[in-house]
Specification:
about 240 residues, Nucleoside Triphosphate Pyrophosphohydrolase, nine-stranded mixed beta sheet, two-stranded antiparallel ribbon
Length: about 240
């Protein structure tokens, strides 16, 4: 399979490394409105100034931070998502993966995902403090995991990324552009076809489409990574 083209900056940064970068834990979430067969999905375009995959459309998401391990939440993970994530991590780290995607959605699109509920404590983190002030508490039970992908070693930054999905039942007009993402909006399958995306996003959109059309998803999820120059696509946990 042909590797995605790197920008000049990306190629220079990768060439400066003596070895492949170690993947960092990350997560992203596909929020959608409408039906599972004809959804509109929240996406945004990465800044052209970004040194990693600039100008392409992606789901909101990013690296899991330490504060995500301590962020309050309402209901816990549903059993399937819990079983998948805890095959790799401790319960706290599994929850942090999901909470990171929620936090990143706020930072990149201005949308707070959760229930209106008063917080009883502050964890001294700017983004999570915004949730506290807004009276929004994440509900993990309604979020499903549908995939995992590790950035190939030819890039200077690598992430072990978990992909989640949730139907959004709030006001879709609350989203907006940020310093990280432009052209933030809800896109239909047909509209998505015209967007500039990297291989991983295109791949995971197909996985998402299949997930949404499956009444009862399997116990494991799609898993993509590269080993010794060859892409491997199977399931996790095995």
């Amino acid at each position: 399979m042909k590797l995605p083209k790197l920008t000049k900056t990306e190629a220079q940064k990768r060439a400066a490394l003596n070895r492949a970068a170690r993947p960092r834990l990350a997560s992203t979430i596909a929020l959608y409105t409408g039906s599972r067969t004809d959804p509109k999905i929240l996406m945004g375009q990465r800044s052209s100034r970004n040194d990693f995959m600039p100008s392409v459309f992606v789901f909101p998401g990013g690296r899991v931070d330490r504060a995500d391990s301590y962020a309050p939440y309402d209901k816990d993970l549903n059993s399937r998502t819990e079983n998948v994530l805890e095959a790799a991590y401790s319960p706290r780290k599994a929850r942090a993966c999901v909470l990171a995607a929620i936090r990143e959605t706020w930072e990149e699109t201005g949308l707070m995902v959760g229930k209106a509920q008063k917080w009883t404590r502050n964890i001294n983190d700017e983004s999570w403090d915004a949730f506290r002030q807004g009276g929004i508490l994440p509900d993990l039970s309604v979020i499903d995991v549908f995939g995992r992908a590790v950035t190939p070693p030819h890039r200077h930054k690598r992430y072990d990324t978990w992909f989640f999905v949730q139907k959004f039942n709030g006001d879709p007009d609350l989203v907006g552009d940020s310093g990280e993402h432009g052209n933030v909006g809800w896109y239909s399958w047909d509209e998505i076809k015209g967007l500039e995306m990297q291989r991983a996003t295109t791949m995971m959109l197909e996985v998402l489409k299949q997930h949404l059309r499956t009444p009862k998803p399997p116990r494991n999820v799609f898993y993509s990574r590269m080993h010794r120059g060859t892409y491997i696509q199977d399931r996790f946990p095995a």
